[in-house]
Amino acid sequence: MHHNSKKLDTDQLEQMLGGVNKTQVAPIVEELFRDFSERRAILAAAIQDRDYKSCRIQAHSLKSLSQTFGFEALNQLARKLEEACRNNDDRDIEQIAQGVFDLMGASKEALTLYLAEKGR
């Protein structure tokens, strides 16, 4: 099942949260959102500094993290950002990064809404 136009793969999310006690979900999500904020700041700084190695590493980590939580669209765009950083493609990096930043916010919103609907 997908939620909010493929921003959130709820099957993947439920698989990840399957063994998690209901009281542990909020701290996990809070840590995820903190990670998103930190990663966004690091990515933005790396792009501004044209540090594409750091950008690629952050995009790779974001790709893995988004896959774990079922953020399909974010996972796919992070994969594109990783590749653009590998190729040192200035124009693509900035455009894709903006999409990544937008999807980070939309993914957070989709997860928050889904968990609220499920009473978690």
TrEMBL record:
InterPro entries: HPT_dom_sf, Sig_transdc_His_kin_Hpt_dom. Pfam families: Hpt. GO terms for molecular function: protein kinase activity. GO terms for biological process: phosphorelay signal transduction system. The modification Phosphohistidine is found at residue 60. Residues 21-118 form the HPt domain. Keywords: Phosphoprotein, Two-component regulatory system. Gene3D superfamilies: HPT domain. This is Hpt domain-containing protein.
